[in-house]
Amino acid sequence: MAAVGRMIEEDKYCVDVLMQVRAAMAALGKVGHIVLENHMDTCVSAAFQADDDAVRKEKIRELMAVFARYGNFGGR
Questions:
Q1: What is the CATH number assigned to the segment(s) 2-70?
Q2: Of 6, 14, 59, 75, which one has the greatest count of Cβ atoms within 10 A?
Q3: What is the pLDDT of residues 36-57, one digit of tens each?
Q4: Could you tell me the residue ranges of all domains in the chain?
């Protein structure tokens, strides 16, 4: 995001700034996808292997909230 700030300070062409913003958003989307995938591979997986039904249900509620709030991270 520092690059976008510099571009604005340097009064770069608006379309170039927008393209940089889109690239940053895409990169963040990919990071979000990686974090979500890691969460599912670790925390969610562990919860589903646990004997505690309440833990499993809580992870389902948590994932539903994440999907409702963030939908598609824009990765891949």
A1: 1.20.58.1000
A2: 59
A3: 999 999 999 999 999 999 999 9
A4: 2-70
